[in-house]
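Hi all, posting the design record for the shared folder.

TITLE: backbone redesign
STEP: 1 of 1
STRUCTURE INPUT:
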């Protein structure tokens, strides 16, 4: 417990409740999930880079989305796994806490912007296919990705700075498995209400700002698909958007529950569950969403497996 006269210079992460035996079981489960996440998203990145059939804006964005998923899970999960192996509480320095929170929020914001851009890309592909290659040329795609990364990292500088301007003198016990902002506010001796409200408004702008083009794009996409006369044509048009739409529902849904709320200091158990969904489950599901629901990616993977089998036989 910290003195009420000074701010914490390090935090003790309480992590998950339960016995050490339960922690070992959770370690095995989360380690397996993390390994599958890394392998699955790396496979997507590799095939997008090497296979000419996937040299299009949609898969270019997908490769960057997979890279972001690897980053966001790697910022959280390795430290969480290490905490599960430790017999006591895990400590993290103030500098490491600042870095972790900043990277987590910055990568998450970058992902929001990129997902919104992918929705616009799907809109152009379905609603304006004849001009698709002109509008979504390589120059445009590169700039979209650059803007996404730059905006994501610049937009989170002030929120993280504002979070750590408070004095954390109530305690240095952080009831979470990483430096989560809501739990940090609980340790502050100052009045965080105004800062929390400003951060809520910023979260609304970022999330709704990236969700708006997604909603508009899919409104036009669905309208266009319904006008296609043949069932096979409608099915083919929808298949180009199904994976992205599924990811949008899962990704935005979980983040809306965690960050777009006026009061950041909610129950620790609630924040842990939603944080696990964002940092473990969603990155794990990403490769399956974009492979099992995408015929072209499945075709590339099948061909890759055949080549590997032929090399082994030879």
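Okay, here is what came back for every position:
SEQUENCE:
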């Amino acid at each position: 417990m910290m003195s009420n006269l000074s701010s914490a210079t390090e935090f003790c992460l309480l992590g998950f409740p339960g016995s050490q035996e339960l922690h070992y079981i959770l370690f095995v489960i989360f380690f397996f999930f993390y390994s599958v996440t890394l392998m699955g998203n790396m496979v997507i990145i590799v095939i997008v880079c090497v296979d000419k059939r996937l040299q299009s804006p949609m898969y270019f964005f997908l490769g960057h989305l997979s890279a972001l998923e690897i980053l966001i899970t790697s910022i959280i999960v390795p430290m969480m796994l290490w905490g599960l192996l430790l017999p006591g509480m895990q400590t993290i320095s103030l500098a490491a806490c600042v870095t972790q929170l900043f990277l987590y929020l910055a990568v998450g914001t970058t992902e929001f912007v990129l997902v919104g851009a992918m929705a616009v890309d799907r809109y152009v592909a379905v609603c304006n296919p004849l001009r698709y290659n002109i509008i979504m040329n390589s120059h445009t795609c590169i700039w979209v990705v650059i803007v996404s990364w730059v905006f994501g990292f610049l937009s989170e500088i002030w929120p993280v700075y504002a979070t750590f301007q408070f004095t954390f003198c109530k305690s240095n016990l952080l009831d979470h498995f990483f430096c989560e902002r809501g739990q940090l506010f609980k340790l502050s001796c100052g009045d965080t209400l105004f800062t929390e409200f400003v951060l809520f408004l910023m979260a609304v702008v970022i999330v709704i700002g990236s969700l708006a083009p997604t909603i508009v794009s899919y409104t036009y996409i669905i309208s266009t698909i319904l006008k296609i006369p043949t069932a096979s044509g409608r099915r083919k048009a929808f298949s180009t958007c199904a994976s992205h739409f599924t990811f949008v529902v899962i990704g935005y849904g979980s983040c809306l529950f965690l960050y777009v709320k006026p009061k950041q200091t909610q129950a620790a158990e609630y924040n842990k569950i939603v944080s696990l969904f964002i940092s473990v489950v969603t990155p794990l599901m990403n490769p399956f969403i974009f492979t099992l629901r995408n015929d072209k990616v499945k075709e590339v993977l099948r061909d890759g497996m055949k080549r590997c089998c032929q090399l082994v036989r030879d």
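COMMENT: The chain has a mean pLDDT of 83.
Let me know if anyone wants the other runs.
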